[in-house]
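note to self — DONT lose this again. spent like an hour looking for the file last time. sequence + predicted structure for the chain T wanted, 459 res
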Amino acid sequence: MNVSNGKTDSILLVSCYELGHQPASLAVPLGFLRRAGYEAEAMDVSVEGFDEQKVKRARFIGISVPMHTALRLGLRVGETIRRINPHAHICFYGLYASLNADYLLNNVADSVIGGEFEQSLVDLIKEIDEGSQVSAKKLPVLARLDFPLPERSALPALERYAKLEHNGEQQLAGYVEASRGCLHYCTHCPIPPVYNGRFFVVPEQVVLEDIRQLVGSGARHITFGDPDFLNGPTHSLRIARAMHEEFPELTFDFTAKVEHIIKYRSLIAELARAGCVFVVSAVESLSDIVLAHLEKGHARGDVGRALHILRDAGIALRPSFVSFTPWTTIDDFIEVLDFVRSHNLIDHVDPVQYSIRLLVPPGSLLVSRPGTEAWLGPLAQESFSYNWSHTDPRMDELHKQVVRIVEQAARRNEDSGFTFQRICDAAHRARGDEEMIRYAPDIAPMKLRPPRLTEAWFC
């Protein structure tokens, strides 16, 4: 590898998709690299496309794969990079890199780093510069890091990313992490196989300084991207208080488990006063059978309690669902639709949530659970997940119909009320109901929708 002043000629970090946010998976490692004296370039192909010139001059290329969609896109990007620059060292890093290390190393990657990867990424570059033997680093790194300030100057401007839509206006949104990993073992989640019940906080002052630089770039809203903002409630509350004291007009959102909303209900009103406008919570299902298989830590009745706690505080709930699992029945699916309608949540749920099908990646906790052989198929390595089929073929067909409806609605920019009704119709037809349940959706063009980000969430 060519070196200059002891450093690689060019370091390039690549993001393929990060939920429509300015990618923390670039900003944080860029901060580590800057502190170590390295200059690096960044490329976010989701908003700025593929820059062949950056690839050609790079000798080390890190591809961030924090989620399944990013991995599938990242594989194609990695294959393209290999053709354009066959001598570059390609490192895949992030949550889904660890889960798919064997495939990546056998096909496109020279190294793989998961878990708390940033310092290991810097160390890897140093090893390459020094001509040392480089380890493939398949095991996730679970060591507490000394975090520098994330480096955002090389990233596209916030205007290029998802915005907060609230009270009929759109505002620039920033994205930070106050913690990583998770204390819990939900069986469908990709975090437990990597973090094994551990979580790590980002120091309060680092988070606040990052928020300051985002506000300086125009952000008027902050998304806390923690897997669960209430894993460390004291830490999170201190950050929210300090942020509100310094920027009283700044709003924010976070993700939290249903059980944490209930457990820490005494904090919810203060978080609302500090500027929280909505909370994403992985409801996943209203079936206690499904929730038990997923080991979610909440029951059906808890969903309504969490909803009321948030509404009493003036915070909107934006539930996420795993709408299709091996244990979900058509009645379960329709029950979710009935719950959404009866609790006035239609505009709180992105239609894509009704199409989410259980993803079983390599290393998933579900693979070793009793009874799995009844529904689990072989690993489809090209899609980085195990195939599975429902014992009721109507559910697999309904999934295909809902996917088509959601994709059509996205192309047409259809009102969520219309989309919801079409999904209801498809579900009732699948069950064989003779009478369809109709309702009058509110589709007034000037209606104020609940607060949301302008890019729908999916994994």
